[in-house]
Specification:
177 residues, mainly alpha, 5 helices
């Protein structure tokens, strides 16, 4: 496939990427304002934190796979990581629609560290959405050179978001009611 064909294929997806990159964070923010008086049968934070940990693990495996030129394995692992991220997001929304947020009770340096991690996690979780989508589209449209270029940015961002999600959970865990 020529570069012109790759660029045309990429452009086909640009509108969808833009829409999803805006709609997902806006929808999450809007859903935070909706409270449903339902008690979930399970306590979701440890489950979605584990999903984040598994996402980080799968991303590292995908990185190793591509370093070893195991392209099909890399593709499957990235699809699993995307699925895990979507699953995390659904559980996260469900939890926050049915439960009040838990305030962090730490003090001093721990408090500043927690809020730094939380803030960077939230901001980068929004920023990483278009990166993941663009990286994925460049792979499925066989625009491999551009895929490799953006993947060098996407991978550390996505990995950071997954790992800091676990760190936030561990730090807030003692303060759950």
């Amino acid at each position: 496939m020529s570069n012109t064909e790759n660029t045309l294929d990429d452009k086909k997806y640009n509108k969808l990427i833009l829409i999803l990159s805006v709609v997902i964070p806006v929808a999450v923010a809007a859903l935070f304002g909706i409270k449903i008086d339902v008690e979930l049968p399970v306590f979701l934070p440890p489950i979605y934190a584990s999903t984040n940990a598994l996402t980080a693990f799968v991303l590292v495996l995908a990185f190793i796979a591509i370093q070893k030129k195991k392209i099909k394995l890399h593709e499957r692992l990235i699809k699993v990581a995307i699925g895990l991220s979507v699953l995390f997001l659904l559980m996260y929304i469900a939890y926050h629609m049915t439960s009040d947020s838990t305030p962090f009770g730490g003090e001093g340096g721990a408090k500043y560290f927690y809020y730094f991690i939380l803030l960077t996690h939230i901001v980068l979780s929004i920023i990483v959405i278009p990166f993941v989508l663009i990286t994925y589209v460049r792979a499925i449209t066989n625009n491999i050179e551009k895929h490799k270029k953006i993947a060098k940015i996407t991978f550390p961002l996505w990995l950071y978001v997954a790992i800091t999600g676990v760190v936030v959970f561990i730090m807030i865990c003692p303060y759950y009611a």
